[in-house]
Amino acid sequence: MKSLPIAYLLKISKVNKLFSLLFFILFSTAAFAGGEGHEESKFDPGKMITEHITDAHDWHLWGEGHHAVSIPLPVIIYSSARGLDVFMSSAFHHGEEVHNGYALREGKVIAVNEMSGPAAVATEDVAATEGLWDISITKNVVSLFVSMIILLYIFMSVAKAYTARKGQAPKGLQSLIEPLVIFVRDDIAKASIGEKKYMKFLPYLLTAFFFIWLNNLLGLVPVFPGGANLTGSISITMTLAIFTFILVLINGNKHYWHHIFAMPGVPTWVLFLLTPIEILGVFLRPFVLMIRLFANITAGHIIALSFFSLIFIFGQMSTGAGFGVAIFSIAFTVFMTCLELLVAFLQAYVFTLLSAIYIGAAVEEAHHDSHDHDAKVEEAHII
To answer: Where are the domains of the chain?
Structure first.
């Protein structure tokens, strides 16, 4: 069954490849056309990349400064000194204006002494900023809700199709989802946890797999509702890792904890060294899950955007050089985007597999020592 999900993945990737190619060509052409009248503004690749991989209080579509087009999002702020304040992010005018004593600097809302005016000259109210709680609906939050709606729609549609077409061959979305569900069930959950206990944890593993995979794909779509680096946010990957950590702690049996605190067959004097390492490993495993997903997804976006930035960097030097580099940069960016389609699937698979291995080690019975050793060897190879 391992070949089925990849076959379906490659089938839908053809549309994404064509879409990405058209977008990058159109975007680069528009950028050069618009750059002729704005030669005084110097392109900052670091700023552009940072804005694309970090969270924001609005959903930027295109343009810069006053000419930028974005979707405003709700700003919800609570300050112990000023109370609750709710308004739309458009009131900041792309971070250039102060609104109700608040300003947007480097993507963060701060309290200022002025109630209105240019944000650049406003002085920060340090005391009010320290007691400020920003619970705004940011770009990542919207992306989270969008992915939830898409997942609910997909699985409710598939479940309804199974109910209406009992005993019949899968059709439509079923033909894509069913092989992936079987793949997670047989090659991840059942193989790592065991046939007796895997069903208890299968809903979580399926949720984690499809949530990560879908958001990885959405992050590669350059227009709304895609483009948010949700799985490249450390808070999201940390939350997913904490879920796995809690499941391991709650479901760990006596055999598991006995191996952690006093591994059988090991001399007592060795336990003084080995036990702290095993305890540390309990906390390092979710940390590895968090960092691996965050680093791989973010690095992919940075590499693709870096090569895309070469178009504008060389375009500032010479228009002819810019168009020459554009051919190379677009080709390599499309290649990286295609590679990221595979990475999107692989990272969802690796996170789910490692979670299953950790859970399987926690619930394994004492008579499965050889399987426990095999699981640890497989985990070491993945890491």
So the answer is: 66-137, 141-382
